[in-house]
Amino acid sequence: MTHREPDLPAELATIRGRQRQLLNVIYGRGSASVEEIRQAIPDPPTDCAVRTLLGRLVLRGAIKKRSIGRKGSRSYAPAISNWDARKRAFERIADDCFGGSKRDAVAALAALAQEE
Questions:
Q1: Contact (Cβ atoms closer than 8 angstroms) between residue 90 and residue 105
Q2: Is domain 13-79 in CATH 3.30.70.3270, yes or no?
Q3: Which pLDDT score, from 0 to 100, does residue 10 have?
């Protein structure tokens, strides 16, 4: 099975490098702690560096930070739901490739599925 990056909103698609790795983990899992993120990426940066990058992503509106439990542990979650991200991705495809026609985009997807 091939690894597939999660669908991201168009405004986040330009994010690259380490920040993109962090987004892929968070959007792929639905939420993650700093330690979970560090364990999921190759050659992870320091805990402090991950927290800095996450802070920047929070400021950009890409992710949300939430406290968990009494000790104030933090978890990071997508700023939008997976469904909304997929919907936006589909709408971009319909707009870019099918003149905005979702019906034509679905028909093309159905034809591709028949080829499998």
A1: yes
A2: no
A3: 62
Domain regions of the chain by residue span: 13-79, 83-115
Question: Quick one: how far is CA 42 from the chain centroid?
Answer: 17
pTM, two decimals, is: 0.67
Name the residue with tokens 């034809």.
111
- How many Cα atoms within 13 Å fall on the side-chain side of residue 21? 15
CB 62 within 8 A of CB 15: yes
How many angstroms separate the CA atoms of 112 and 98, rounded? Answer: 15
Nearest CA among 1, 2, 73, 59 for reference residue 31? 73
